[in-house]
Amino acid sequence: MKRELIQNIKVIPYKSGEEAIDRERFLSGVLAVSLGAASGEPTGITVKIAVTECDTQGGGYTAVKDKHVFIDHTADGDGAITLTADKSGNELHNLDLDLAGCKKFIKITVTVNCAGGTGPKCDATCAIALGDNAVQPV
Fold this sequence. Notes:
This protein is mainly β. Helix content is 5%, strand content 46%. It has one helix at 2-8; strands at residues 10-14, 21-22, 26-35, 44-54, 62-63, 80-85, 92-98, 105-115, 124-133. Strands 2, 4, 5, 6 and 8 form a five-stranded antiparallel sheet that branches. Strands 1-9-3-7 form a four-stranded antiparallel sheet. The radius of gyration is 16 Å and the shape is globular. The two termini are 14 Å apart.
């Protein structure tokens, strides 16, 4: 089992919105979004996560058409969902992704919005694990 798992997934630390992810042969994924501790005592934190796609790495990316790219959420017309976070931050969100209908390259943009308080600051780090490799070793 251990060798099968290693050969069938790819884990990528990810910088929001800047890097194109080559998801060729991978049909699903798990996106981890880790929120750091908030400063400035915000009264509310939201996290918007958008998935865009393109046939080429350097081409023009458009919102995914599949409203169910996020398994447990319905994406809006921008291929995005918005989550409400605890006002202290310090949260980990694991989001299951169905990438079967996506083009070869995807970008995921994570936008954290801190509202209220005195100069609130919030940040997030991301990683994606691609799985369900359509080409399995023999």
